[in-house]
Model the fold of this input.
Amino acid sequence: MKIVGKRRTSEDLTPIPPEEALRRAAVLQAQAELLNPFPRPRGFVFKARTREEYERWRKAPVQSEPLVIAMAHASSLLRVCQLLNEACAKYLICGAQACILHGLVRTTEDVDILVETSAENCQRVIDGLAKLADGAARELTPQDILENVVVKIADEVEVDVSMHAWKVTYADAIASARETIVEGIRVPFLGLDDLIASKETYRERDALDRARLLELKKRTPN
Done:
């Protein structure tokens, strides 16, 4: 048997444009959901005062009937950004979606946002996300965002709202934040250095992301 060429692997971290990375991630997520067709319930919010409390909830077994999901996760991200932009909210995409925007293609179940910490801005965030299909965010107040480490809004899209991405705040990150336009929608997201810093947690998944992001940084032209 003779083999020529090189198989592309998940460790091929050649930089790619954000829009192409989102497209590839959506394909990968759709494939993953076919293997695990048990969506989380939706139409509610979950408020976690500590990271540990959030992790216990996140790892809890899902009690739901099987359902094949055909949602394109690029569209989920764009839906969230569109609503937040229309509400004039100050936010940055962080977490897995930010990894994807930097070219690290992977799966994710939600959209993580880092928000500016004024009560006025928190209200704008709520107003924007309340326009998701189930209106789950309508039960929130700015104080809920200010008093909890993570607020999960389980709607047509799962959105995790935080004032800290590990130790990184909106105020820390805004100066070096990145921005791209996808399908006419502005998508602001953490710069690479702040994204790497936000992955310095105790979670195994974050450690893997951080290692790959550091490798991606080496290959990204200055």
User: Anything to note?
Assistant: The two ends are 42 Å apart (CA to CA).
